Amino acid sequence: MKIVVLTGAGISAESGVPTFRAADGLWEGHRVEDVATPEGFERDPETVQRFYDDRRAHLSTVAPNPAHVALARLEAQGDHDVLVVTQNVDDLHERAGSHDVLHMHGELLSAWCLACDGRFRWDGPLLDRPACPGCGDQGLRPDIVWFGEYPYELDRIDEALQRADLFVSIGTSGAVYPAAGFVRSAHAYGARTLELNLEPTNGTDLFDEARHGPAGTVVPAWVGELVAG
Ligand code: BJW
User: Ligand 1: which residue has its CA nearest to atom 63?
Assistant: First the structure.
């Protein structure tokens, strides 16, 4: 079976990575337009670099949870063709062992040079304006897709949705487009659709089936069913 899995912040919540729209979420203390738009970065690059530097540093203190591990197990088992499309900018899917992962909103561990357009693996801070490894310019920014910017890999994602037998959405509120529209596309292309989330979302009714509970419990249970056949 061809399976496309869309993941959001909820899959990393039990690893200790805050979600975005919870009461204690990541935006708390920050206006979205200040830290997640190109205009905000132009206005106050230090605040934005500090916001992402802190989150990049926090990555080394967290680890994949049973939900990430279960998805890696599903891929490794080999009976199904599994593509993970993640909105998350952490690297927990890769650290759990998933190989086929698309980061549609970019990655904390990548820096993008505005001078030469190069992208480089980056695990340190950017606030101190380090030189670009490619051209030496000091114009590196987080390689993150902000509001108003075009997400990565949309063509590849759409091709995968066209071929998918099953589309599974895990731990995302469905508040941000175009990812929030994937369930409609998958349905129109003929895939079965499943939502796995802590609680019902505004989009729950769009799915053929929904199961609610913590990702660390519901994802391994669902993978267990598939692996058992
Ligand atoms: C658990 C759990 C547990 C908790 N277990 N579950 C159409 C209509 C209106 C507006 C637009 C539109 N199309 C485009 C727009 C504009 C805009 C947009 O969507 N705005 C909305 C606010 C309406 N979109 C864009 O600008 C995008 N670009 C774009 O559209 O380009 C043009 C284009 C047009 C047409 C086609 C193609 C392209 C870019 C969006 C970039 C989003 N970037 C961010 C920030 C990245 C930087 C950063 O990380 O700091 O990405 S926003 C933020 O939200 C982040 C996330 O990836 C994204 C999604 O959030 P997510 O993952 O769903 O998190 P939460 O917190 O919302 O939800 C967590 C869920 O988990 C909840 O449901 C919990 O219940 C659950 N949960 N614990 C299981 N233990």
Answer: 172
Q: Residue 52: which residues within 8 A CB-CB, separation 6 or more?
A: 108, 126, 142, 144
Give the atom of ligand 1 at the shortest distance from the alpha carbon of 35: 50
Residue 200 buriedness (CB in 10 A; 0-12 / 13-18 / 19+): exposed
CA of 225 to the centre of ligand 1 (A): 29
Contacts of 167 (CB under 8 A, 6+ apart): 3, 4, 6, 161, 182, 183, 186, 187, 191, 192, 193, 194
Q: Does residue 65 have its Cβ closer than 6 Å to ligand 1?
A: no
Q: Token pair of 166, please?
A: 């099953």
Taking the complete model, does pTM exceed 0.85, yes or no?
yes
Q: Which of 99, 105, 187, 212 is catalytic?
A: 105
Count, in order, helices (H) and strands (E) of the chain.
9, 9
Q: Is residue 29 pLDDT above 80, yes or no? A: no
Residues 166-188 as b/e (b if ≥16 CB within 10 A, e otherwise) read bbbbbbbbbebeebbebbebbbe
Cβ of 86 below 6 Å from ligand 1: no
Angle between helix 154-163 and 182-189 (nearest 10): 40
Residue-wise pLDDT for 94-146, tens only, equals 999 999 999 999 999 999 999 999 999 999 999 999 999 999 999 999 999 99
Distance CA 107, CA 66 (A): 21
Query: Which residue CA neighbors atom 73 of ligand 1 most closely?
Result: 173
